[in-house]
Amino acid sequence: MAEKYCWSDCEDEEFMGEHETREDALEEGRDAREAGTTIWTGIVSQPKRPAVKIGDVYDFVEQKQDEAYDLGGEATNGWLDVDKEKLEGLRVGFDEVFRAWLVKHELEPQWSVVDAIREHPPKEQS
Predict the structure, then answer these.
(1) pTM summary value
(2) Strands, DSSP E only, in the chain?
(3) Residue that wins the pLDDT comparison between 1 and 58
(4) Cα–Cα distance between 39 and 108 in angstroms, integer?
(5) How far apart are CA 103 and CA 95, in angstroms?
(6) What three-state secondary structure class fits 123?
(7) What radius of gyration, in Å, describes the C-alpha atoms of the chain?
């Protein structure tokens, strides 16, 4: 897939457009804003889906341990005390389920990330 370029009049705000070249994006930005405005351009990247992280799994297991303790008291001590390898396996499973759930309910990310941002100061007026 060929790179696409976008523009903004604020470095860390919403970028607009999808252009074949950085120059085309810059031209649209300059045409859309007042003379004397700095324009930023960047490369549009694919959306990145938030992933299930090991800390998420650790928190989930800890919550289940707390619930078990509420139900069974000290008899539950040691339940779900598992090593990192088992937690990683659970994380992978959760991530697969999360991904399938996003697809099923059409909730996949619709945003893009902008990389390789460059500042283009205003053109000097003659």
Answers:
(1) 0.59
(2) 5-8, 16-19, 39-45, 113-120
(3) 58
(4) 30
(5) 12
(6) coil
(7) 24
